[in-house]
Design brief:
The longest helix is centred in the N-terminal third of the chain and has 15 residues, at about 5-20. This protein has a single domain (about 40-164), classed as Fimbrial-type adhesion domain (Immunoglobulin-like), CATH 2.60.40.1090. The protein has one helix and eight strands, in the order αββββββββ. With about 160 residues, it is mainly β. The strands form two sheets. Strands 1-2-7-5-4 form a five-stranded antiparallel sheet, with no helix packed on it. A three-stranded antiparallel sheet has the order 6-3-8, with no helix packed on it.
Length: about 160
């Protein structure tokens, strides 16, 4: 048994040397990271529903609808509207139809209903994106004097375009 002690001692000494950590080396580099944020806008609408209209009352009928624009922060945007789908419609006299019947109405940018919206000039609605939704109310009016219209459901579709 005595002969194994020196051998055992040599093995312990060798494993102690082998267990020593090697000196580590390293190399550095950099990783470039980038992203480009583009201008983007999203629009959603809230319908303008005049509800049930009494054309014999002799009164204008008012309603509101609107749209919401969410644009990249700092993006300038402009919202315009067309005259709608009624044949012969204009910005000041848009047309809801029920078959061949036509009900005239208008859209405005102000509650006083003095500025007609949609002619792509002075009545554009402008904004600057914040990254959050920006809501705009659109004011509608069906003018009196349309008492000869028959009952029924009248509709129109106005296209809102946001340019950014």
């Amino acid at each position: 048994m005595k002969t194994f002690k020196p051998l055992l001692g040599s093995m312990i000494a060798v494993s102690a040397i082998a267990a020593q950590p090697a000196f580590a080396q390293s190399a550095d580099s950099t990783l470039a990271v980038s992203a480009t944020v583009s201008n983007n806008c999203v629009i959603s609408t809230t319908p303008l529903d005049f509800a049930t209209v009494d054309v014999t009352s002799g009164n204008d009928v008012d309603g509101t609808g609107g749209f919401s624009v969410t644009c990249t922060s700092g993006a300038n945007w402009t919202a315009t509207a067309d005259a709608g789908t009624g044949s012969g419609a204009t910005f000041a006299a848009r047309q809801m139809t029920n078959g061949t019947e036509v009900m005239t109405y208008a859209l405005y940018t102000d509650a006083a209903r003095s500025t007609v919206w949609g002619d792509a000039t002075a009545t554009d609605i402008d904004g600057v994106g914040t990254g959050a939704a920006q809501a705009t109310t659109i004011y509608g009016r069906i003018p009196s004097g349309q008492s000869a219209l028959p009952s029924g459901t009248y509709n129109d579709t106005v296209t809102i375009t946001v340019t950014y």
